[in-house]
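A quick aside before the break. I want you to see a complete sequence-to-structure record at least once, exactly as it would be stored in a machine-readable document. Don't worry about memorizing anything.
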Amino acid sequence: MKQRFDFEDIRPLYDEEVAPAMKEILKEPALEGIFNYLFPNKSFDEIASELLKVNSKKEFQKKFIAPFLWILANKTAASLELLNYDRISKEDSSTFISNHRDIILDAAFLNILLDKYGFDTTEVAIGDNLLIFPWIRDLVRMNKSFIVKRNMPVRQLLEVSRRLSSYIHFALKIKEQSVWIAQREGRSKDSTDHTQESLIKMLAMGGGKDLMRSIKSMNITPVAISYEYDPCDYLKAKEFQLKRDYSDYKKEKKEDLLNMQTGLKGFKGRINFNVAGRLNDVIDSISPDSGKSEQVNAIALLIDKMIHKNFVIYEVNYIAYDWLYQTDNYSDKYTAQQKQQFQEYISQRLDKIDIENKDTEFLTKKLLEMYSNPLINFEKAQ
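That is the input. The structure line, written in tokens, reads:
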């Protein structure tokens, strides 16, 4: 008999739960429109019939999720590559930590790339703020996601974090399942990409009192994600102005949905996932005699450096830097035509921003920061 653990409301579905959950999910009226977009050559009934035959998470990923994601990548990206995958351990489960660019696709693309090169897919940490409908919650749990509870009262936060950490250690060590988690809560709107110290503290909780030993046991493997273009760049710029102009501004659920849809359908150019190596290979540079807070800070900085050092830098990043800072430092990295094309691209993104008291100068600055900050961090890390 399968042993059950107290992770019922955050864990992925068990395989025997997949078929019953699928029956319920297929009752959702919104799915027909989604299927029509994903699989235009098949009727809803045909797809539903195939989905009702699925009996495991692996089968669901192999037959539906992976084919859809490769179709999406071919439609919306110039290329999708996994670099230095030989740095991934084949003996031990890994905790993949990456910068966060797209709400859905960061982990999704990593998983199909891992599968392409013979690795098992990861379990994925996903915030419950994105699980707007019950059927979405069931769907992501069917796709090997575990739930991160957001916006908890302070008095409950410690216990929620401890339980999440315990689940991640359980997945790594008992299930022998790799996991993915972003280096920070939410996407970095300006692409500065820094690891939250609270993430390191949370991860260490489930592995005992010795922080360094707990972190080492997780086989943390940072991954640098580089999108040439960010389909949501104009939405992020708009949000920056709204936050500047309205102190009480708070993003609504429908805006999260718009970001998810835009990220999925928008053109991304070249996409590279670069495996930065294993944190355990450099973690011993941290003094064992330092205090816990110093160790947490040092671990976060090491992860940052590994990610920043492994960014793939595109022509648009060089152009954005020179434009923003009024230099020609990188003029040898791009052509006049590429510069003109990027200037036209920025102009088109500005045109898409529908906002009262539109501050074009401010919005341009924010867009250029998004594209120049990966280059700045890359240069600092070398």
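Two observations worth writing down. The radius of gyration is 21 Å. The CA atoms of residues 13 and 142 lie 5 Å apart. We'll return to this after the break.
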